[in-house]
Amino acid sequence: MRELFEELLQLKSKGRYRHLRQIENISNNYVKVDGRTLLMCASNNYLGLSKHPLTQKAAIEAITQHGVGSTGARLTTGNSPLHEQLEKEIANLKGTESAIVFNTGYMANLAVLTALTGPEDVIFSDELNHASIIDACRLSKAKIVIYKHSDLQDLEMKLKQEVYSRRKIIVTDGVFSMDGDIAPVAGLVELSENFLAWLMIDDAHGTGVLGSTGGGTADYFGMTDRVFIQMGTMSKAIGSEGGYIAGSQILIDYLRNRARPYIYSTALSPGVIAASIEGIRLVRDQPNRREELRQRVMQLREGLRAEGFQVPLGETPIVPVILGGEEKALAFSSKLESEGIFAPAIRPPTVPNGTSRIRLTITATHTEAEIEQIIKGFRNVAREVGHYEKG
Ligand SMILES: *Cc1c(COP(=O)(O)O)cnc(C)c1O
After folding, report:
1. Counting C-beta atoms within 10 Å of the first and last residue's C-beta, which end of the chain has fewer, N or C?
2. Which pTM value belongs to this model?
3. In what order do the strands lie in the sheet with 23-25?
4. 212 alpha carbon – ligand 1 mean position (Å)
């Protein structure tokens, strides 16, 4: 216990101790934190579906009819008609033959990489991929080759060195979670085909947001049929919970037989499944939500840049404002709170040293006036903190 205690003390002395905060959801855009009402600018609820009356109604009805728990794993007692319907809806949204649902996106990543690869195989992984991919790679026992962020030349060089392995998988985030940039999918598709590798896209942040029908990153590039594995989650734009893999029928049948997180964990609750089905319907049938989101995102990105903030070019709702040092990012975030804005600082080890930032995420339910309020808040805080990096 003494060892653990000392490690925690060390974290505290480095300012890296993680504190929980109680966030009480008041309405779509407002939360109560420590008694203060703040404009939420950091949630993954990109289309506002987590509090949509139809997703809420679907969950309540499913719970009333089927109960709160699913009572077993999918292969034992937990496979309701709702679960199968959701998988059809996902396959339809993603433009694939089939799909399989897992309890979380994290589990979907663990499931697919551990089921498909072993010591004879190589996984090529972007250096900025999500932590769940990193953990999945380690657990898979495959050889792991990390390539430079979205660097096709570096990846090609590394693919050339591994031509004799059994299977090769190239895995990338579709939209990178800390920078909001989009993976170079056209180039990745080409490399995967030239080197007989499978391409896997983790589309946690792209699904529902990118593409004309909300199909995500592959849809955005018009390359759905050339991406072998599309992974995603219902916990972001869909507004609910649960991960998935979408792909060919053979891939999905294989995972139902071999993916341990699918076989050995209780199926998601009927309420969650019903909310996801409704969420996907709204994603598909209400493209105006995506359009409104896009307009708000551009308003914020352009507004912050005009104020001189360092906001990398991009078009996704993940808007990083790079501030540099950890202290500065922390001070900035806490002063934003005084301006009524909730936007936590992101620091190492989550992002590289010297790139501490405020990571804003915008949702379709933010109004034009609220975006102006965010920009004004940044302007006021920058004046107070003194100086900030020029973009
Ligand atoms: C959120 C996220 C996940 C995990 O999804 P959960 O459903 O929250 O477990 C995986 N990959 C990326 C890129 C994510 O942003």
Report:
1. N
2. 0.95
3. 23-25, 30-33, 36-40, 341-342
4. 22
Distance 218 CA to ligand 1 centre (A): 17
Q: Largest Cα–Cα distance of the chain, in whole Å?
A: 61
- Residue 132 Cα to ligand 1 midpoint, Å, equals 7
Q: Band of the pLDDT at 18, cuts 50, 70, 90?
A: confident
Active site annotation includes 51: no
| Tokens standing for residue 299 | 């308003």
Helix/strand number for the chain, H first, E second? 14, 14
Does the beta carbon of 173 sit less than 6 angstroms from any atom of ligand 1?
yes
Q: Which atom of ligand 1 is nearest to the CA of 177?
A: 15
How far apart are the C-alpha atoms of 2 and 193, rounded to whole Å?
A: 53
> What would the two tokens of residue 179 be?
């920078």
Catalytic residue among 98, 132, 177, 356: 177
Q: Is 333 tagged catalytic?
A: no
Q: Which residues contact 163 (CB under 8 A, 6 or more apart)?
A: 195
Residue 309's nearest CA partner among 298, 297, 320 is 320
Nearest CA to ligand 1 atom 8: 105
Distance CA 314, CA 219 (A): 17
Work out the pLDDT band at 15, boundaries 50, 70, 90.
Answer: confident
Determine contact, residues 83/273, Cβ cutoff 8 Å. Answer: yes
Distance CA 88, CA 72 (A): 21
In the structure encoding, which two tokens stand for residue 42, read together?
């950091």
Q: Is 387 a catalytic residue?
A: no
Q: Does residue 116 contact residue 166 with C-beta atoms inside 8 Å?
A: no
Q: With cut-offs at 50, 70 and 90, classify the pLDDT of residue 140.
A: very high
| DSSP 3-state of 102 | strand
Reported residue count of the chain is 391
